[in-house]
UniProtKB/TrEMBL annotation:
Record region (Disordered): 96-131
Acidic residues: bias regions: 115-131
Entries under InterPro entries matching the protein: RNaseH-like_sf
Record-given protein name: Uncharacterized protein
């Protein structure tokens, strides 16, 4: 915030991973970035999603509280409440291969808790398109 109480924001760092998002990798990266920026003793809280890997990553940081992002939680609530589910490629492929007469149906899985998704690879999930 500046002297005129205008909110300012900036991205301090952006990190992508070629492998699974393990808590240990996330914790190490966050610790390194905070250290590089010289703010490791100044950060008192972080906002993240509710996934187990994020909870575990931030639990290893001393004196830092993790808060679940309200916008992310609202998004999950709306998607699940409105049945905006994700289709799983594996289920659809098995159905097409094993039951050619049932090609129009598939097993839709609903995730009421995003932690259920943590063990899936990104390529296992096909984003549903609205018709």
């Amino acid at each position: 915030m500046d002297d005129e109480l205008t909110s300012k924001s900036t991205v301090l760092h952006f990190q992508s991973y070629d492998q699974r998002h393990l808590a240990s990798n996330i914790a190490a990266e966050v610790h390194n970035r905070l250290h590089d920026l010289g703010i490791e003793d100044k950060v008192t809280s972080v906002t993240a999603d509710g996934a187990t890997n994020m909870a575990n990553a931030f639990s290893s940081l001393d004196n830092v509280d993790r808060f679940w992002c309200v916008a992310h939680r609202l998004h999950l609530t709306l998607c699940n409440g409105l049945c905006l589910w994700k289709k799983f490629k594996k289920d659809e492929e098995e159905l097409n291969n094993n039951n050619s007469d049932l090609k129009d149906s598939f097993d839709a899985k609903t995730t009421f808790n995003e932690n259920d998704m943590e063990y899936l690879q990104e390529d296992d999930i096909e984003k549903e398109t609205t018709d």
